[in-house]
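Sequence in, structure out. Go.
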Amino acid sequence: MHTLISEDRVLAHGKTRDRFYELKPRVNYSKSIKISNEFSHIDMLQNQILPNLKILSKNVYDICEFSIMAVLSNTIDHAKASRIYYKLFVTDYDVHIILSDNGRGIFDHIKQSLDLDDLHVAAIEIAKGHVTSDPENHAGDELRTVVHLFDKVTIDASGLCLSYFNPNKDWTSNVSSHQKGTRIHLEIKTNSTRKLEKVFHRLFDKERRFIRIPVSLVRTAGEQVSSRQQAQCLLNNISDLQSIEFDFNHIDLIGPAFADELVRKTKQKNNSININWINSNKVVDVLMSRAVNRLT
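Output:
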């Protein structure tokens, strides 16, 4: 502790026996910028944001540079925002990057562009990956890549919060207080060994037209997963896939109608697709196997 104090790396709070310390952030910088005709997100990245991140190791710096550019480009292309806010917070242990705008929320944009039923279905499409509202000009790989580069990614928009936890490949959705625009929070350990090129290679080498679908995202308030309508929410945009994997993490029980619809509609949309599932208990295995066997 004496070393940290002498190096001015901690903040002291309180006096004598009540005193406690916390590490000073190495970077704590934020700014709100108006998007005008003269605005350039490339200039903002190069001249304002990246100089504050030079203290990071090269691999973490590269991840941050790529990801911030991807998010900013998406905001400029699709959000129709008039302001962008960003915050950089770096400690000896963690890097936090928050990018927020006051434009059209990402879930609402995807819902309208893909003619989906509701915002939760739009969130599911983001979790599935390869989602794009402009297929003629974008492959939809940027956000998918950003999600896999960080330890945790949280997307807040239109009253919905979608989070991805990289270590266990887990998606969750919750209610959010964020209504206007989109807020994206990127988190990664300062000493992370993750490398941009290795993630690219894993995601794009010998691409198998495969997706993993987190089934738990069909629940909006912890309700049972039992209806055909819930199954249908998972099955948009699967016609060109070779393989689909349903992830039943956090799911203890499904209904027979849900399992039947999941398999039946998948095969109707793409009869040659391979259907697999993971993180399932014995009850889920029985119902999914029954549905597959009845339709093959």
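Check: The mean pLDDT is 90. The first strand starts at residue 10 and ends at 13.
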